[in-house]
Amino acid sequence: MTGAGPANPNRKRGSGMPAQQPEPRYLVIGRVLRPHGVRGELRLEIITGYPERVAQLKQLFVGPDHRRYAVEGARLHQGALLLKLQGCDDRTAAEALRNCLVEVAREEAVPLAEGEYYHFQLVGVQVITEAGEPLGEIVEVLDTPGANDVYVVHGPRGELLLPGIREVVRTLDLAQRQMVVHLLPGLLETTAEDNQPDGE
Questions:
Q1: Looking at residues 12-33, what average pLDDT do you find?
Q2: Domains annotated on the chain, with CATH
């Protein structure tokens, strides 16, 4: 249930008109790191902006075959999500799910608040400046823990990293697949290479 709005906010070939990406059937909310305890509880890496909402879900899908499990409980613990699934009742069963992705069916996801968006909705959105200069399209949304999202934009200026904050994102029109941004000083010099650790 990763989501991002302006505050934390494909083109049809030959037509010039933007096209909405097809919605995925499932949305990833976490990855099983390891068992927690001996009663089948799972410790998950959080891959959602709203881990506190997982407890409201009735069922989740686990692994590449999307096996369905009823949710018995979910709680946050030391930066991870502890999840109890029906039928996963001991450490052996939990161990069998290690490294599996945990997903929610798109239609069963908890609705986002007004002005919030799922990351997949932003991929392919065309980005322009307030002056109308095209910067390219969003190819990826980076989820930075404890901070704003970062939009990876590929276009005429190469690769740009734009923070998803109100000072930068002026408007977002999903119907038109367009985002208007205000470029703060230094943003055009920010590329993926600038963010690589020294020596890489």
A1: 65
A2: 26-108 (2.40.30.60), 123-195 (2.30.30.240)
